[in-house]
Amino acid sequence: MTLVKIAYTTNTGNTEGISEYLEDAFEDLEMEVVREEADDIDSDFFEDADIAIVATFTDGDGEIPFGFEDFYEEITDQELEGKIYGVVGTGDSELYPDFFCEAAHLFDKALAQTGATKGAEVLTIENEAEGEDVERINAFAKEVASK
């Protein structure tokens, strides 16, 4: 069975909610899913995964959230060749128009350096997932899984 690992961090609960939607979407595709908060994982979290997913918000002026900093700094040292990855970001484009979901794009670049294959374009979501966002999350999971 395909193993999907989802690493997430949350501040307001929006990204945690999105990670739960991702978990449901991959389980609906009959995949095994492990979902963990960034504070609870090490840099080798994706080592045994077939699919690696990062779900993050962006802190301050386009920065990686505090709870994800160590993981982010160490991820490029991992060799994830043969694995598929995807990144989902949450943000507020009204408060941070210049840095909307910047941390997700930084993770996308970092994961590309590991040798993993990008499964889908970065999915960005305004604040919490609602209505069409859930459909976009399901489509994202299907696209990643199809790789």
UniProtKB/TrEMBL annotation:
Domain Flavodoxin-like: 4-145
Record keywords: Electron transport, Flavoprotein, FMN, Transport
Pfam families reported for this sequence: Flavodoxin_1
InterPro entries, per database record: Flavdoxin-like (IPR001094), Flavodoxin (IPR050619), Flavodoxin/NO_synth (IPR008254), Flavoprotein-like_sf (IPR029039)
One Gene Ontology molecular-function label: FMN binding
Sequence intervals crossing the membrane: none
Gene3D superfamilies: 3.40.50.360
Cofactor(s) needed by this chain: FMN
Family the entry assigns: Belongs to the flavodoxin family.
Biological role stated in the UniProt entry: Low-potential electron donor to a number of redox enzymes.
Name this polypeptide is given: Flavodoxin
